[in-house]
Amino acid sequence: MNIVFDFGGVLFRWHPPSFLARVWPHRVPDAEAGQAVAAQFFQQYAGDWGAFDQGLIGADEVIARIAARTGWLAAEVAQVVDAVADELQLLSPTVALIQDLKAAGHRLFYLSNMPEPYADHLERSHPLQQWFENGVFSGRVKQSKPGAEIYRIAIERFGVAPESCLFLDDHPANIEAAHAAGWQALHFTTADAVRPQLRERGLLGL
Hints:
Layout: E1 2-5, H1 16-23, H2 31-42, H3 47-53, H4 59-70, H5 74-87, H6 92-103, E2 107-112, H7 116-125, H8 128-131, E3 134-137, H9 138-141, H10 148-158, E4 165-169, H11 172-180, E5 184-187, H12 191-200
Parallel strand pairs: 1-2, 1-4, 2-3, 4-5
GO molecular function: hydrolase activity
Keywords: Hydrolase
InterPro entries: HAD-like_sf, HAD-SF_hydro_IA, HAD_sf
């Protein structure tokens, strides 16, 4: 089986409400309050941040756009943008899952919505080439999930059939798009939660 991992919220920590509560305590007192601020900042990964995800604009431009749209100071917006790379900490249970899937003989790939600066950071900081045969970052192909084109690009790059791929992603819209592209897919919440589903499919031993 070809198992394809999302990154944010799957292999790397990414929970915008709690992230903003840590970076912007003067604006976001706790994660609950962070829900509304995260929706305004990241726009559900559409709008300004969506263009950044797709590599259509750079960090300076996304900072300027968010500041102009929200009225927040550009320096404060830059503080958040600059803090994202450090926020993307490895989730050790997912690393263990990767190692177990590799040991079981599966081929592993990744498909991640990731602006180029953060993609560069992850490649420098982690042994992605040891864990994965290949992968697609949205910022480098100018497409993003859940758009159909990035799934087609991934299949072409991986050199595999869509039906042979099992996608693990934390966003239901991306799971639906994977199914529409002919992939198998599972909604990822935690590594511990997905393990039984992988065992049911015969992809992991007991």
